[in-house]
Amino acid sequence: MLFRNCAGGIVFYGNKVLLLKNEKNEWVLPKGIIKGDNVPSKVAIDRVKNECGVDTKILSTAGQTNYEFYSISRKTPVCNEIVWYVMESNEATCNINKELGFVDGGFYKIKDALELITYSQDKSIVNLSFKKYKNLKREM
């Protein structure tokens, strides 16, 4: 099995969260593989910018998820372990990178986002991160 370390962002703008719809019609969060000696937090910020055109800042860590799948191109099972960050954007505009295979996306109200998100792990991490985000905003 191929193990890959990844990093991603759960990006909030007020009561909305950033989601992407990929070419498989799955609603997901922005994330990417950590290559070489790159720092996970920088990878997360860069992936959000590259996939969505959104500038963000990290407020906190959010947790980790992992998932396994079979890579047809590599002909091997793959396990992605993702470290997530609670992030904030100063604006709700985004520019989805269609060259990366994304077909839609944007900022969605939390209630709507939780219905759209394809994977239960992503729903859980968004729900927990939104609670953390609200608490962090109160403390600021």
The end-to-end span amounts to 43 Å
Shape: globular
**Secondary structure tally, helices:** 3
Could you name the ranges where pLDDT drops below 50 across 5 or more consecutive residues? none
Number of strands: 7
* Helix and strand element order: EEEEHEEEHH
The major sheet is characterized as: 7 strands, mixed
The average pLDDT score comes to 96
Strand content: 35-45%
Q: By helix and strand content, what is the structural category?
A: alpha+beta
Rg on CA atoms, Å: 14 Å
Helix content: 25-40%
Overview of the molecule:
By secondary structure, the chain is an alpha+beta fold. Helices cover 29% and strands 43% of the residues. It is built from 3 helices and 7 strands. Strands 1, 2, 3, 4, 5, 6 and 7 form a 7-stranded mixed β-sheet that branches. A hairpin with a 2-residue loop joins strand 1 and strand 2 (16-22). Helix 2 runs antiparallel to helix 3 (120-139). The chain is globular, with a radius of gyration of 14 Å. It starts with a strand and ends with a helix. The model has no long low-confidence stretch (mean pLDDT 96).
Overview in brief:
With 140 residues, the chain is an alpha+beta fold.
Comma- or semicolon-separated keywords:
single chain, 140 residues, alpha+beta, seven-stranded mixed β-sheet, 3 helices
Secondary-structure blueprint of this entry?
Elements: E1 2-13, E2 16-22, E3 27-28, E4 31-33, H1 40-52, E5 57-71, E6 76-88, E7 102-109, H2 110-116, H3 120-139
Parallel strand pairs: 1-6
Antiparallel strand pairs: 1-2, 1-4, 2-3, 2-7, 5-6
